[in-house]
Design a protein that fits this description.
Cytochrome p450-Terp, domain 2, 16 helices, 2 domains, binds carboxymethyl coenzyme *A, about 5% strand, three-stranded antiparallel sheet
């Protein structure tokens, strides 16, 4: 079963969740994609309505959780707070150590539903604002934007946020999913597995690259500076954030969709600056690394998503936690699969040589 949670052809640039191509999933609601990953098939209309209703009902956080959020260091990346709060709330889940299918499904729904609320509440608290309660009439993406900004989001931005969560939802045995699976393989609880995923995702070689892309765009500041920046990085043998992938040796299909979305957003806003800087970086990396040096270094998921956040005025401090909001459904799908196996993952040290 684990094989068909996700399929990647890294040479052709193909990505499928549960045998459905990402380009077919991109226009669905995130809830439908989450259901697909966790349950193994796309929901019918009634099933989707019930699943969404259960998610919407579990979005809220109580006063105790808010107290913990206020006690967090308010100057850190939202990922650190998210990791702490998910760990804290696990103690109060009546199903914490119930690893039955039903118990795990109840925890899965609570986790997927509440994580965006925790991120938004932390963000608003850190910025001296009152948290905004979730709105059950809004989609996963629109509700998240509403909770961080405090106003009903622009429809295009809401659509892009929903697509961002879909594109981030699953990617086979990446580092954070592997980490979650290892935790689940010990038959530890689902919250612990999700915390493992969060701890692993935050690294700059994984989900943390998105925030670094935003910093890079600011540093470059104008399309004319992109070439010099790329040449300097290559000369110093430093990595250019948002490029390269262990599996894709061609264009990452998620990166391609993000590029189209970022262009659309730039055009609608009438401001091509961030998009043009990004395109200049891409052109220079392709020329210098792919064409001249024969290295398969293409934009990955984190590159044009960073551009989108610049337009949507989402700060770098939130970038990795947005990735986590999407990816949690993928982690949980893999954990469910791992629980069925009832077998601990215990590689031998020499296997690390292949990693
Ligand atoms: N910029 C410049 N050179 C690069 C880059 C890059 N972003 N990525 C790889 N290379 C070069 C690297 O220097 C090496 O060259 P050489 O063979 O001459 O020493 C070669 O390509 C192979 O690199 P590697 O680090 O061994 O490749 P990997 O498969 O271990 O790493 C990666 C994959 C994603 C960690 C890496 O490409 C990287 O660090 N990229 C920048 C960080 C980033 O964007 N991370 C997000 C990854 S996608 C989302 C996710 O998984 O979370």
């Amino acid at each position: 079963m684990s094989k068909n949670i996700c399929f990647i052809d890294g040479l052709e640039g193909i990505l499928k969740y549960r045998d459905v191509d990402i380009n077919e999933l991109i226009d669905l609601p995130y809830d439908a994609v989450s259901y697909l990953l966790i349950r193994g098939e796309l929901p019918g209309k009634q099933e989707l309505a019930e699943y969404s209703a259960r998610l919407h009902a579990e979005r809220g956080i109580n006063r105790e959780v808010m107290d913990i959020i206020r006690m967090c260091n308010l100057n850190i990346d939202a990922m650190e707070a998210l990791r702490t709060v998910v760990s804290f709330i696990s103690q109060f889940d009546p199903d914490l150590n119930d690893n039955s299918q039903e118990g795990n499904m109840r925890k899965a729904i609570r986790l997927i539903a509440v994580v965006p609320t925790i991120v938004a509440a932390y963000y608003r608290t850190a910025n001296g604002k009152e948290p905004v309660p979730p709105d059950p009439s809004l989609s996963h993406g629109a509700n998240f934007l509403y909770m961080i900004k405090g106003i009903k989001p622009d429809p295009l931005e809401a659509e892009i946020m929903e697509k961002d969560f879909i594109l981030s939802a699953e990617h086979e045995l990446n580092a954070s999913t592997f980490s979650s699976r290892v935790t689940a393989s010990t038959l530890s609880d689902l919250y612990s597995a999700v915390v493992s995923g969060l701890c692993t995702l935050k690294g700059p070689l994984h989900g943390g690259a998105r925030a670094e892309v935003m910093t890079m765009l600011e540093e470059i500041a104008s399309p004319e500076n992109a070439e010099m920046y790329v040449l300097e990085k290559i000369k110093k043998r430093e990595k250019i954030m948002g490029f390269g992938h262990r599996v894709y040796k061609t264009y990452d299909p998620r990166g391609t969709i993000f590029k189209q979305l970022s262009r659309r957003l730039a055009e609608v806003k009438g401001d091509m600056r961030w998009y043009s800087i990004a395109e200049e970086i891409e052109n220079n990396v392709i020329r210098e690394l792919v064409e001249k040096r024969g290295k398969p270094i293409y934009p990955n998921i984190d590159f044009y998503s960073g551009v989108i956040y610049k337009y949507m005025e989402i700060p770098p401090q939130l970038a990795t936690s947005i990735f986590a909001i999407g990816r949690i459904s993928g982690w949980i799908a893999h954990c469910f699969d791992q629980y069925e196996k009832k077998r601990i993952i215990r590689p031998r040290i020499f296997m690390l040589d292949e990693c």
